[in-house]
Amino acid sequence: MIQDAFVRLRAKQLYWQGYPPAEISRLMGISQNTIYSWKKRDEWDETPPVARVTQSIDARLVQLTGKPDKTGGDFKEIDLLTRQLKKLSDGQPTDANGTKKPRKRKLKNHFTEEQIIALREKIMGSLAWHQRGWYEQRHHRNRMILKSRQIGATWYFAREALLDALRDDVK
Fold this sequence. Notes:
This protein is mainly alpha-helical. Helix content is 61%, strand content 0%. It folds into two domains: 88 residues, no CATH class; 56 residues, no CATH class. The chain contains eight helices and no strands. Helix 1 packs across helix 2, helix 2 crosses helix 3 and helix 6 runs antiparallel to helix 8. Pfam families: Terminase_5 (PF06056), Terminase_6N (PF03237).
């Protein structure tokens, strides 16, 4: 059974290397119909390229780690292959097909409703008279403001954007 799995894996790798099933059959001494059956059943053609490379690297790593007397070159190759695997996986778990599972989004700086209300009241209480006028006109897409220095426009618009983001739950 284990030997059958090894033979099947070797046939799949030869197929991915570009050998036709007839050539694989001749090289391995297996019926051509068996090779075609494995190809269809295991969906060799539908396997994504990243999964193909990953499986090939895995097979080589298993071969190298099982070797009793490793040379310096073997250790170098093991190091290279493990780094390549890590780079391919990109730190994300993959499913059986080799596709990456989507990461769960973390809520950052999440405000509660009470915090949003308190923040809105604090900001509104700190506005100067001309900034209150800007706030009342916030529904206009374009606002023409004749801006002189030291009137707090940058400060105001940063807080307006924050309040809009909290109101609309902007990501």
